[in-house]
Amino acid sequence: MSSDSNATTETDPCLPRQFSDPEVAGIGVLVSFGISILFNIFIIVLAYIGRALRQDRYNALDHAFLTDLYRLVGKKWESSNRVLHSTQHVLAFEAFFQSIADQQLFTGLALVVAIYAIRAGVSGLDAETSGYSYIMAVNLALLSCLAHLSAMTVLRTRLGKLKRLRDVRVVMIVVTFALLMPPFVATQMMSSLETMRCEMTYFDSDPHLLVWNDDYRGQQTLFLATLAIIGFLSCGYLRRLLELYFPIFRASPEAWTAEMLEAICKWPSQQERQNLNAGAESEQDMLLSKLNKTSQGSKFQRIFQRITRIFRILAVVFAELTRSFLAEIIWLIFYTTFGITQIIYLFLWETGEPEAVGGPVSFKWGFGQILPLVLLGLPFLSATELYSNIKHLKENQQTPSTPGSNNLSTTTPKTSQASQQAVAIQPPLQNTHESLYDACLKSHRTTTLCGTLAVVVLYIVTVLTAAVAFTGIPWMRLEYNEFWGDESGNESGVTLPGYVTTLFLFIGSLLLLVCSLYWSLSWIWRGRYRRPYYKVDEAALQ
Protein backbone atom coordinates (compact mmCIF):
# COMPACT_ATOMS: atom_id res chain seq x y z
CA MET A 1 0.00 0.00 0.00
CA SER A 2 2.80 2.40 0.87
CA SER A 3 4.70 1.76 -2.38
CA ASP A 4 1.53 2.18 -4.44
CA SER A 5 0.80 5.44 -2.66
CA ASN A 6 4.30 6.78 -3.25
CA ALA A 7 4.15 5.79 -6.92
CA THR A 8 0.82 7.54 -7.34
CA THR A 9 2.17 10.65 -5.64
CA GLU A 10 5.15 10.78 -7.97
CA THR A 11 2.92 10.59 -11.05
CA ASP A 12 0.27 12.96 -9.71
CA PRO A 13 1.72 15.97 -7.84
CA CYS A 14 -1.75 16.90 -6.58
CA LEU A 15 -1.97 13.82 -4.37
CA PRO A 16 -0.31 14.40 -0.97
CA ARG A 17 2.23 11.98 0.36
CA GLN A 18 0.48 11.99 3.72
CA PHE A 19 -3.29 12.35 3.97
CA SER A 20 -3.47 13.19 7.70
CA ASP A 21 -0.56 15.16 9.11
CA PRO A 22 0.27 13.90 12.64
CA GLU A 23 1.09 17.47 13.71
CA VAL A 24 -2.52 18.50 12.98
CA ALA A 25 -4.67 15.38 12.81
CA GLY A 26 -2.71 13.29 15.29
CA ILE A 27 -4.45 11.47 18.10
CA GLY A 28 -2.61 13.52 20.72
CA VAL A 29 -3.61 16.85 19.16
CA LEU A 30 -7.27 15.90 18.75
CA VAL A 31 -7.59 14.43 22.24
CA SER A 32 -5.99 17.47 23.88
CA PHE A 33 -8.23 19.90 21.99
CA GLY A 34 -11.36 17.91 22.72
CA ILE A 35 -10.65 17.58 26.43
CA SER A 36 -9.71 21.25 26.82
CA ILE A 37 -12.91 22.44 25.12
CA LEU A 38 -15.15 20.15 27.17
CA PHE A 39 -13.20 21.13 30.28
CA ASN A 40 -14.05 24.79 29.66
CA ILE A 41 -17.77 24.08 29.44
CA PHE A 42 -17.63 21.84 32.50
CA ILE A 43 -15.89 24.53 34.56
CA ILE A 44 -18.46 27.17 33.54
CA VAL A 45 -21.38 24.90 34.44
CA LEU A 46 -19.73 24.00 37.74
CA ALA A 47 -19.16 27.69 38.54
CA TYR A 48 -22.78 28.47 37.67
CA ILE A 49 -24.07 25.75 39.98
CA GLY A 50 -21.56 26.52 42.74
CA ARG A 51 -22.32 30.28 42.85
CA ALA A 52 -18.82 31.19 41.68
CA LEU A 53 -20.15 33.80 39.25
CA ARG A 54 -20.89 37.42 40.03
CA GLN A 55 -24.26 37.97 41.62
CA ASP A 56 -25.58 40.12 38.77
CA ARG A 57 -25.30 37.12 36.41
CA TYR A 58 -28.14 35.31 38.18
CA ASN A 59 -31.70 36.42 37.48
CA ALA A 60 -35.01 35.15 38.85
CA LEU A 61 -35.09 32.12 36.55
CA ASP A 62 -31.53 31.17 37.50
CA HIS A 63 -32.43 31.31 41.19
CA ALA A 64 -35.56 29.21 40.65
CA PHE A 65 -33.67 26.68 38.54
CA LEU A 66 -30.81 26.32 41.01
CA THR A 67 -33.17 26.22 43.98
CA ASP A 68 -34.93 23.18 42.55
CA LEU A 69 -31.60 21.65 41.51
CA TYR A 70 -30.22 22.03 45.02
CA ARG A 71 -33.43 20.62 46.44
CA LEU A 72 -32.98 17.49 44.34
CA VAL A 73 -29.56 16.85 45.89
CA GLY A 74 -30.74 17.71 49.41
CA LYS A 75 -29.11 21.13 49.75
CA LYS A 76 -30.44 24.63 50.18
CA TRP A 77 -29.84 27.34 47.60
CA GLU A 78 -28.78 30.58 49.27
CA SER A 79 -29.68 33.49 47.05
CA SER A 80 -28.74 36.16 49.59
CA ASN A 81 -25.57 38.16 49.07
CA ARG A 82 -22.86 36.65 51.22
CA VAL A 83 -20.27 39.22 50.21
CA LEU A 84 -17.13 37.70 51.72
CA HIS A 85 -18.02 34.22 50.49
CA SER A 86 -18.86 35.30 46.95
CA THR A 87 -15.95 37.73 46.69
CA GLN A 88 -13.22 35.25 47.48
CA HIS A 89 -14.76 32.48 45.42
CA VAL A 90 -15.40 34.67 42.39
CA LEU A 91 -11.92 36.21 42.41
CA ALA A 92 -10.30 32.79 42.67
CA PHE A 93 -12.42 31.34 39.88
CA GLU A 94 -11.93 34.29 37.52
CA ALA A 95 -8.16 34.30 37.97
CA PHE A 96 -8.09 30.59 37.16
CA PHE A 97 -10.39 30.86 34.17
CA GLN A 98 -8.63 33.86 32.67
CA SER A 99 -5.36 31.92 32.43
CA ILE A 100 -7.18 29.20 30.48
CA ALA A 101 -8.84 31.81 28.25
CA ASP A 102 -5.54 33.46 27.35
CA GLN A 103 -4.06 30.06 26.52
CA GLN A 104 -6.96 29.36 24.13
CA LEU A 105 -6.58 32.78 22.51
CA PHE A 106 -2.87 32.35 21.80
CA THR A 107 -3.45 28.79 20.57
CA GLY A 108 -6.00 30.04 18.06
CA LEU A 109 -3.69 32.85 16.93
CA ALA A 110 -0.78 30.41 16.47
CA LEU A 111 -2.96 28.11 14.37
CA VAL A 112 -4.09 31.03 12.20
CA VAL A 113 -0.45 32.00 11.57
CA ALA A 114 0.33 28.39 10.61
CA ILE A 115 -2.70 28.30 8.29
CA TYR A 116 -1.53 31.38 6.41
CA ALA A 117 2.02 30.02 6.26
CA ILE A 118 0.67 26.92 4.51
CA ARG A 119 -1.46 29.05 2.20
CA ALA A 120 1.52 31.23 1.28
CA GLY A 121 3.66 28.18 0.49
CA VAL A 122 6.35 28.90 3.07
CA SER A 123 9.11 26.26 2.72
CA GLY A 124 6.94 24.41 0.22
CA LEU A 125 4.28 23.55 2.81
CA ASP A 126 1.45 23.97 0.32
CA ALA A 127 2.87 21.17 -1.85
CA GLU A 128 3.16 18.79 1.11
CA THR A 129 0.01 19.56 3.10
CA SER A 130 -3.22 17.84 2.14
CA GLY A 131 -6.53 19.62 2.01
CA TYR A 132 -7.70 17.41 4.86
CA SER A 133 -4.91 18.58 7.18
CA TYR A 134 -5.57 22.19 6.20
CA ILE A 135 -9.31 21.87 6.91
CA MET A 136 -8.54 20.20 10.23
CA ALA A 137 -6.20 23.06 11.21
CA VAL A 138 -8.90 25.61 10.38
CA ASN A 139 -11.48 23.72 12.45
CA LEU A 140 -9.12 23.45 15.41
CA ALA A 141 -8.43 27.18 15.23
CA LEU A 142 -12.18 27.80 15.12
CA LEU A 143 -12.61 25.56 18.15
CA SER A 144 -10.01 27.59 20.06
CA CYS A 145 -11.80 30.82 19.18
CA LEU A 146 -15.13 29.40 20.32
CA ALA A 147 -13.55 28.28 23.59
CA HIS A 148 -12.27 31.80 24.13
CA LEU A 149 -15.75 33.12 23.33
CA SER A 150 -17.07 31.20 26.33
CA ALA A 151 -14.41 32.80 28.50
CA MET A 152 -15.41 36.28 27.36
CA THR A 153 -18.96 35.55 28.48
CA VAL A 154 -17.83 34.77 32.01
CA LEU A 155 -15.03 37.33 32.39
CA ARG A 156 -16.62 40.42 30.89
CA THR A 157 -16.53 42.41 34.17
CA ARG A 158 -13.00 41.32 35.07
CA LEU A 159 -11.69 42.14 31.59
CA GLY A 160 -13.14 45.63 31.88
CA LYS A 161 -11.09 46.46 34.98
CA LEU A 162 -7.73 46.90 33.22
CA LYS A 163 -8.70 48.82 30.11
CA ARG A 164 -5.37 48.66 28.28
CA LEU A 165 -5.06 44.91 28.67
CA ARG A 166 -8.70 44.63 27.65
CA ASP A 167 -8.00 46.58 24.47
CA VAL A 168 -4.97 44.39 23.68
CA ARG A 169 -7.05 41.25 24.09
CA VAL A 170 -9.86 42.67 21.98
CA VAL A 171 -7.44 43.53 19.17
CA MET A 172 -6.05 40.00 19.26
CA ILE A 173 -9.58 38.56 19.23
CA VAL A 174 -10.70 40.67 16.29
CA VAL A 175 -7.53 40.00 14.28
CA THR A 176 -7.69 36.25 14.93
CA PHE A 177 -11.37 35.97 14.04
CA ALA A 178 -11.06 38.20 10.96
CA LEU A 179 -8.08 36.23 9.63
CA LEU A 180 -9.81 32.93 10.33
CA MET A 181 -13.00 33.63 8.38
CA PRO A 182 -11.52 33.59 4.81
CA PRO A 183 -9.89 30.15 5.27
CA PHE A 184 -13.06 28.91 6.95
CA VAL A 185 -15.16 29.98 3.97
CA ALA A 186 -12.68 28.36 1.57
CA THR A 187 -12.77 25.04 3.44
CA GLN A 188 -16.52 24.79 2.86
CA MET A 189 -15.82 24.04 -0.83
CA MET A 190 -12.36 22.53 -0.61
CA SER A 191 -11.48 18.93 -1.43
CA SER A 192 -9.53 17.10 1.25
CA LEU A 193 -7.80 14.65 -1.12
CA GLU A 194 -5.43 17.01 -2.94
CA THR A 195 -2.51 19.16 -1.89
CA MET A 196 -3.10 22.77 -0.95
CA ARG A 197 -1.09 24.01 -3.95
CA CYS A 198 -3.49 22.34 -6.39
CA GLU A 199 -6.53 23.37 -4.35
CA MET A 200 -5.51 27.02 -4.22
CA THR A 201 -4.78 27.00 -7.95
CA TYR A 202 -8.32 25.79 -8.52
CA PHE A 203 -9.74 28.46 -6.22
CA ASP A 204 -7.73 31.23 -7.84
CA SER A 205 -8.99 30.21 -11.28
CA ASP A 206 -12.63 30.29 -10.16
CA PRO A 207 -13.24 33.22 -7.80
CA HIS A 208 -17.04 32.74 -7.91
CA LEU A 209 -17.19 29.49 -5.98
CA LEU A 210 -19.10 31.02 -3.09
CA VAL A 211 -21.35 33.32 -5.11
CA TRP A 212 -25.02 32.63 -5.68
CA ASN A 213 -25.57 30.31 -8.64
CA ASP A 214 -29.06 30.12 -10.15
CA ASP A 215 -28.32 26.88 -11.98
CA TYR A 216 -27.01 24.67 -9.21
CA ARG A 217 -28.86 24.03 -5.97
CA GLY A 218 -25.76 22.66 -4.31
CA GLN A 219 -24.09 26.03 -4.83
CA GLN A 220 -27.11 27.82 -3.39
CA THR A 221 -27.11 25.49 -0.39
CA LEU A 222 -23.44 26.17 0.28
CA PHE A 223 -23.83 29.93 -0.17
CA LEU A 224 -26.76 30.27 2.24
CA ALA A 225 -25.29 27.87 4.80
CA THR A 226 -21.92 29.63 4.85
CA LEU A 227 -23.55 33.04 5.12
CA ALA A 228 -25.76 31.91 8.00
CA ILE A 229 -22.84 30.29 9.85
CA ILE A 230 -20.65 33.39 9.55
CA GLY A 231 -23.58 35.52 10.69
CA PHE A 232 -24.10 33.47 13.83
CA LEU A 233 -20.40 33.43 14.70
CA SER A 234 -19.98 37.16 14.02
CA CYS A 235 -23.05 38.08 16.08
CA GLY A 236 -21.77 35.99 18.98
CA TYR A 237 -18.43 37.79 19.01
CA LEU A 238 -19.94 41.22 18.36
CA ARG A 239 -22.31 40.89 21.28
CA ARG A 240 -19.54 39.90 23.71
CA LEU A 241 -17.29 42.71 22.52
CA LEU A 242 -20.04 45.29 22.93
CA GLU A 243 -20.76 44.01 26.43
CA LEU A 244 -17.12 44.65 27.33
CA TYR A 245 -17.30 48.33 26.42
CA PHE A 246 -20.95 49.29 26.97
CA PRO A 247 -22.77 48.13 30.12
CA ILE A 248 -26.09 48.98 28.45
CA PHE A 249 -25.66 45.92 26.22
CA ARG A 250 -25.65 43.59 29.22
CA ALA A 251 -29.24 44.27 30.26
CA SER A 252 -31.29 42.99 27.35
CA PRO A 253 -31.59 43.41 23.57
CA GLU A 254 -34.34 45.96 24.11
CA ALA A 255 -32.27 48.07 26.48
CA TRP A 256 -29.36 48.67 24.11
CA THR A 257 -31.72 49.08 21.14
CA ALA A 258 -33.52 51.87 22.97
CA GLU A 259 -30.24 53.59 23.81
CA MET A 260 -28.95 53.28 20.25
CA LEU A 261 -32.17 54.71 18.82
CA GLU A 262 -31.98 57.64 21.21
CA ALA A 263 -28.31 58.29 20.40
CA ILE A 264 -28.70 58.03 16.61
CA CYS A 265 -32.30 59.01 15.87
CA LYS A 266 -32.95 61.10 18.99
CA TRP A 267 -35.97 58.92 19.67
CA PRO A 268 -37.48 58.51 22.14
CA SER A 269 -36.68 61.91 23.57
CA GLN A 270 -36.09 62.43 27.26
CA GLN A 271 -39.66 63.59 27.77
CA GLU A 272 -41.06 60.66 25.79
CA ARG A 273 -38.91 58.27 27.79
CA GLN A 274 -40.23 59.70 31.04
CA ASN A 275 -43.77 59.27 29.79
CA LEU A 276 -43.07 55.68 28.78
CA ASN A 277 -41.43 54.94 32.11
CA ALA A 278 -44.35 56.47 33.99
CA GLY A 279 -46.71 53.99 32.37
CA ALA A 280 -44.43 50.99 32.75
CA GLU A 281 -45.69 49.92 36.16
CA SER A 282 -49.33 50.33 35.18
CA GLU A 283 -48.72 48.15 32.13
CA GLN A 284 -47.09 45.52 34.30
CA ASP A 285 -49.91 45.68 36.83
CA MET A 286 -52.37 45.15 33.99
CA LEU A 287 -50.52 42.05 32.85
CA LEU A 288 -50.31 40.77 36.42
CA SER A 289 -54.03 41.29 36.88
CA LYS A 290 -54.64 39.19 33.77
CA LEU A 291 -52.38 36.48 35.13
CA ASN A 292 -54.07 36.50 38.54
CA LYS A 293 -57.60 36.88 37.23
CA THR A 294 -59.91 34.14 38.44
CA SER A 295 -61.50 32.03 35.74
CA GLN A 296 -65.17 32.93 35.32
CA GLY A 297 -68.05 32.17 33.00
CA SER A 298 -69.01 28.91 31.39
CA LYS A 299 -66.88 25.80 31.43
CA PHE A 300 -65.58 26.53 27.94
CA GLN A 301 -64.72 30.12 28.90
CA ARG A 302 -62.86 28.96 32.02
CA ILE A 303 -60.85 26.47 29.98
CA PHE A 304 -60.03 29.16 27.41
CA GLN A 305 -58.96 31.60 30.16
CA ARG A 306 -56.69 28.99 31.73
CA ILE A 307 -55.08 28.20 28.39
CA THR A 308 -54.57 31.93 27.76
CA ARG A 309 -52.99 32.32 31.20
CA ILE A 310 -50.62 29.43 30.52
CA PHE A 311 -49.44 31.03 27.28
CA ARG A 312 -48.90 34.35 29.07
CA ILE A 313 -46.84 32.61 31.72
CA LEU A 314 -44.82 30.83 29.03
CA ALA A 315 -44.15 34.20 27.37
CA VAL A 316 -42.86 35.58 30.68
CA VAL A 317 -40.73 32.45 31.21
CA PHE A 318 -39.20 32.71 27.74
CA ALA A 319 -38.42 36.41 28.23
CA GLU A 320 -36.72 35.63 31.54
CA LEU A 321 -34.84 32.69 30.04
CA THR A 322 -33.27 34.82 27.31
CA ARG A 323 -31.80 37.09 30.01
CA SER A 324 -30.55 34.28 32.25
CA PHE A 325 -27.06 32.88 32.47
CA LEU A 326 -28.59 29.48 31.80
CA ALA A 327 -29.32 30.70 28.27
CA GLU A 328 -25.70 31.84 27.98
CA ILE A 329 -24.55 28.32 28.86
CA ILE A 330 -26.91 26.83 26.28
CA TRP A 331 -25.51 29.09 23.56
CA LEU A 332 -21.95 28.28 24.60
CA ILE A 333 -22.83 24.62 24.17
CA PHE A 334 -24.24 25.57 20.75
CA TYR A 335 -20.90 27.02 19.63
CA THR A 336 -18.96 24.11 21.12
CA THR A 337 -21.25 21.57 19.46
CA PHE A 338 -20.86 23.40 16.17
CA GLY A 339 -17.07 23.28 16.37
CA ILE A 340 -16.90 19.62 17.39
CA THR A 341 -19.42 18.44 14.79
CA GLN A 342 -17.41 20.26 12.13
CA ILE A 343 -14.61 17.79 12.83
CA ILE A 344 -16.99 14.82 13.12
CA TYR A 345 -18.54 15.55 9.72
CA LEU A 346 -15.04 15.87 8.29
CA PHE A 347 -14.28 12.37 9.58
CA LEU A 348 -17.49 10.91 8.18
CA TRP A 349 -17.57 12.44 4.71
CA GLU A 350 -14.02 13.16 3.63
CA THR A 351 -12.16 10.04 4.78
CA GLY A 352 -14.16 7.32 3.06
CA GLU A 353 -12.56 7.85 -0.34
CA PRO A 354 -9.98 5.35 -1.65
CA GLU A 355 -7.42 8.15 -1.94
CA ALA A 356 -7.67 8.86 1.79
CA VAL A 357 -4.68 6.69 2.67
CA GLY A 358 -3.91 6.46 6.37
CA GLY A 359 -7.35 7.29 7.77
CA PRO A 360 -8.65 10.47 9.40
CA VAL A 361 -6.48 10.24 12.52
CA SER A 362 -2.73 9.75 12.58
CA PHE A 363 -1.39 7.45 15.28
CA LYS A 364 2.23 8.23 14.45
CA TRP A 365 3.66 9.44 17.74
CA GLY A 366 6.09 12.32 17.79
CA PHE A 367 6.92 15.57 19.53
CA GLY A 368 3.87 17.31 18.02
CA GLN A 369 1.55 14.72 19.58
CA ILE A 370 3.17 14.28 22.97
CA LEU A 371 3.52 18.02 23.70
CA PRO A 372 -0.22 18.92 23.69
CA LEU A 373 -1.01 15.89 25.85
CA VAL A 374 1.60 16.97 28.41
CA LEU A 375 0.41 20.61 28.33
CA LEU A 376 -3.09 19.33 28.96
CA GLY A 377 -2.06 18.85 32.58
CA LEU A 378 -1.74 22.62 33.15
CA PRO A 379 -5.47 23.45 33.42
CA PHE A 380 -6.05 20.40 35.63
CA LEU A 381 -3.18 21.49 37.87
CA SER A 382 -4.69 24.98 38.07
CA ALA A 383 -8.11 23.49 38.81
CA THR A 384 -6.62 21.47 41.67
CA GLU A 385 -5.05 24.63 43.06
CA LEU A 386 -8.39 26.45 42.74
CA TYR A 387 -10.15 23.67 44.64
CA SER A 388 -7.53 23.80 47.39
CA ASN A 389 -7.88 27.57 47.72
CA ILE A 390 -11.67 27.39 47.95
CA LYS A 391 -11.43 24.62 50.54
CA HIS A 392 -8.94 26.72 52.50
CA LEU A 393 -11.27 29.73 52.36
CA LYS A 394 -14.18 27.68 53.70
CA GLU A 395 -12.07 26.44 56.60
CA ASN A 396 -11.01 30.00 57.45
CA GLN A 397 -14.63 31.15 57.44
CA GLN A 398 -15.47 28.54 60.06
CA THR A 399 -12.33 29.13 62.17
CA PRO A 400 -11.64 32.81 63.03
CA SER A 401 -8.03 33.81 62.59
CA THR A 402 -5.98 34.80 65.65
CA PRO A 403 -3.73 37.86 65.81
CA GLY A 404 -0.27 37.17 64.51
CA SER A 405 -1.24 34.01 62.67
CA ASN A 406 0.23 33.47 59.25
CA ASN A 407 -3.17 33.21 57.55
CA LEU A 408 -3.18 34.15 53.90
CA SER A 409 -6.92 34.81 53.90
CA THR A 410 -6.71 37.42 56.69
CA THR A 411 -7.35 40.82 55.18
CA THR A 412 -7.45 44.30 56.55
CA PRO A 413 -10.75 46.16 56.40
CA LYS A 414 -9.40 48.27 53.57
CA THR A 415 -8.38 45.36 51.37
CA SER A 416 -11.50 43.44 52.29
CA GLN A 417 -13.66 46.39 51.31
CA ALA A 418 -11.78 46.75 48.02
CA SER A 419 -12.20 43.09 47.19
CA GLN A 420 -15.90 43.28 48.04
CA GLN A 421 -16.36 46.24 45.73
CA ALA A 422 -14.54 44.34 42.97
CA VAL A 423 -17.22 41.67 42.97
CA ALA A 424 -20.33 43.00 44.66
CA ILE A 425 -20.51 45.79 42.09
CA GLN A 426 -23.97 47.08 41.42
CA PRO A 427 -25.01 46.50 37.83
CA PRO A 428 -25.40 49.77 35.92
CA LEU A 429 -28.91 48.74 34.88
CA GLN A 430 -30.95 48.11 37.98
CA ASN A 431 -34.36 46.51 38.24
CA THR A 432 -36.75 48.97 39.85
CA HIS A 433 -39.46 46.48 40.70
CA GLU A 434 -40.12 42.80 41.06
CA SER A 435 -39.80 40.89 37.81
CA LEU A 436 -42.81 39.32 36.16
CA TYR A 437 -41.23 35.92 36.61
CA ASP A 438 -41.12 36.36 40.39
CA ALA A 439 -44.75 37.43 40.35
CA CYS A 440 -45.69 34.35 38.33
CA LEU A 441 -43.85 32.15 40.80
CA LYS A 442 -45.81 33.60 43.69
CA SER A 443 -49.23 33.29 42.11
CA HIS A 444 -48.80 30.23 39.84
CA ARG A 445 -45.73 28.43 41.12
CA THR A 446 -46.50 24.95 39.78
CA THR A 447 -47.50 26.21 36.34
CA THR A 448 -44.48 28.52 36.18
CA LEU A 449 -41.99 25.82 37.19
CA CYS A 450 -43.49 23.27 34.78
CA GLY A 451 -43.47 25.92 32.05
CA THR A 452 -39.85 26.76 32.87
CA LEU A 453 -38.84 23.13 32.54
CA ALA A 454 -40.70 22.76 29.24
CA VAL A 455 -39.28 25.99 27.78
CA VAL A 456 -35.72 25.18 28.87
CA VAL A 457 -35.85 21.67 27.41
CA LEU A 458 -37.36 22.94 24.14
CA TYR A 459 -34.77 25.74 24.01
CA ILE A 460 -31.89 23.30 24.50
CA VAL A 461 -33.19 20.85 21.89
CA THR A 462 -33.77 23.63 19.35
CA VAL A 463 -30.36 25.25 19.85
CA LEU A 464 -28.39 22.00 19.73
CA THR A 465 -30.35 20.75 16.72
CA ALA A 466 -29.54 24.01 14.95
CA ALA A 467 -25.84 23.55 15.78
CA VAL A 468 -25.75 20.08 14.25
CA ALA A 469 -27.85 21.17 11.26
CA PHE A 470 -25.71 24.22 10.52
CA THR A 471 -22.64 22.01 10.54
CA GLY A 472 -24.13 19.34 8.30
CA ILE A 473 -25.71 21.61 5.71
CA PRO A 474 -22.54 22.27 3.66
CA TRP A 475 -22.02 18.51 3.34
CA MET A 476 -25.57 18.08 2.02
CA ARG A 477 -24.73 19.95 -1.16
CA LEU A 478 -23.55 16.66 -2.73
CA GLU A 479 -25.52 15.30 -5.63
CA TYR A 480 -27.47 12.08 -5.25
CA ASN A 481 -25.07 10.11 -7.42
CA GLU A 482 -22.16 11.27 -5.22
CA PHE A 483 -23.96 10.77 -1.94
CA TRP A 484 -25.46 7.35 -2.66
CA GLY A 485 -22.73 6.07 -4.97
CA ASP A 486 -25.00 6.07 -8.03
CA GLU A 487 -22.95 5.68 -11.21
CA SER A 488 -25.79 6.46 -13.57
CA GLY A 489 -24.35 9.89 -14.24
CA ASN A 490 -27.59 11.67 -13.43
CA GLU A 491 -26.49 15.04 -12.09
CA SER A 492 -29.90 16.70 -12.06
CA GLY A 493 -30.68 15.79 -8.47
CA VAL A 494 -29.11 17.26 -5.36
CA THR A 495 -29.75 16.38 -1.77
CA LEU A 496 -33.16 17.96 -1.33
CA PRO A 497 -33.07 17.66 2.50
CA GLY A 498 -29.90 19.74 2.61
CA TYR A 499 -31.33 22.39 0.30
CA VAL A 500 -34.66 22.61 2.14
CA THR A 501 -32.98 22.63 5.56
CA THR A 502 -30.67 25.42 4.45
CA LEU A 503 -33.53 27.55 3.21
CA PHE A 504 -35.49 26.88 6.39
CA LEU A 505 -32.64 27.85 8.72
CA PHE A 506 -31.58 30.85 6.66
CA ILE A 507 -35.13 32.23 6.43
CA GLY A 508 -35.58 31.45 10.12
CA SER A 509 -32.46 33.48 10.92
CA LEU A 510 -33.81 36.45 8.97
CA LEU A 511 -37.20 36.15 10.67
CA LEU A 512 -35.48 36.01 14.05
CA LEU A 513 -33.64 39.24 13.23
CA VAL A 514 -36.87 40.97 12.13
CA CYS A 515 -38.77 39.72 15.18
CA SER A 516 -35.99 40.90 17.50
CA LEU A 517 -36.22 44.39 16.02
CA TYR A 518 -40.01 44.34 16.31
CA TRP A 519 -39.87 43.17 19.93
CA SER A 520 -37.34 45.89 20.69
CA LEU A 521 -39.60 48.61 19.32
CA SER A 522 -42.64 47.06 21.00
CA TRP A 523 -40.78 47.06 24.29
CA ILE A 524 -40.24 50.81 23.95
CA TRP A 525 -43.73 51.62 22.71
CA ARG A 526 -45.53 49.62 25.38
CA GLY A 527 -43.67 51.01 28.33
CA ARG A 528 -41.17 48.15 28.58
CA TYR A 529 -43.52 45.84 30.44
CA ARG A 530 -42.48 42.75 28.47
CA ARG A 531 -39.16 42.78 30.30
CA PRO A 532 -38.35 44.16 33.75
CA TYR A 533 -38.09 47.92 33.57
CA TYR A 534 -34.57 49.26 33.96
CA LYS A 535 -33.12 52.62 34.70
CA VAL A 536 -29.55 53.74 34.19
CA ASP A 537 -27.44 54.09 37.32
CA GLU A 538 -25.04 56.85 36.32
CA ALA A 539 -22.72 56.26 39.29
CA ALA A 540 -22.12 52.66 38.30
CA LEU A 541 -21.14 53.69 34.78
CA GLN A 542 -18.21 55.75 36.00
From TrEMBL:
InterPro entries: Elsinochrome_Biosynth-Asso. Signal peptide: none annotated. The chain crosses the membrane at residues 25-49, 105-122, 134-155, 167-186, 222-242, 329-349, 369-387, 452-476, 496-521. Keywords: Membrane, Transmembrane, Transmembrane helix. It comes from the Eukaryota. PANTHER family: INTEGRAL MEMBRANE PROTEIN. This is Uncharacterized protein. It comes from Podospora australis.
